[in-house]
Each structure stands twice: as C-alpha cells, then as structure tokens.
Design goal:
By secondary structure, the protein is an alpha+beta fold. The protein contains 3 helices and 4 strands.
C-alpha cells in the first residue's frame, strides 16, 4: 500500500463549488469497477484557514496507473492546481500506526 499527502492553500473560486468537485471525484473513483476498493481518498481542511490536505492510498502500482489514466483524474488534478493558484505539494508518506 502506498500513501500520499497532497497539500495546498485554497486561493481561487468558491469553497462550495470546490467541495462539490471533490465529491464528484470521490464518486467517480467509487463508481469505477477497476478502482473501487483499490484507491482510498480523504480530503481534510484546516478549520481556521484555507489549507487543504488530501490523503490518497493505492493498493499497488497498477491501481495508481489506472487512476492516473482516467480523464476524471486529469480534470481533477488540473482543477486542484487552479484552486491552489498553481502551488500544490504531493508527498509520499509512510503510515506508521493507527487505531483499530
């Protein structure tokens, strides 16, 4: 399992429209038979400012490549850059432990 954190500050557009776009992206992943259950995606926002954190998990390299090949992924990636004013950081992260 590979994990990634995507970070940015929301700079352009309305948060309502952006949250709807996030919801559409997640529904597209869940609706894709090849990706469902192989891609995990969570979006969090700092309560006090416009900083967003997306946590993505992929079961394997094939799932990651399949996601990256989808048109809905490419559109969402571009929209993320747009709302962030072009400043998006993607970092591979290591999961150490978690509650049951």
């Amino acid at each position: 399992m590979k994990h990634f954190m995507i970070r940015y500050e929301f700079k352009s557009g309305t948060t309502e429209a952006w949250h709807q776009e996030i919801g559409r992206f997640i529904k597209a992943i869940d609706g894709d038979p090849e990706l469902k259950g192989r891609i995990g995606y969570r979006v969090l926002k700092n309560r006090d400012d416009g900083n967003y954190f997306h946590l993505a998990s992929v079961t394997d390299e094939a799932a990651q490549k399949a996601l990256q090949s989808r048109d809905f992924f490419k559109a969402y990636q571009e929209m993320t850059r747009k709302v962030a004013g072009g400043e998006v950081t993607v970092a591979p992260i290591e999961w150490i432990d978690q509650t049951a």
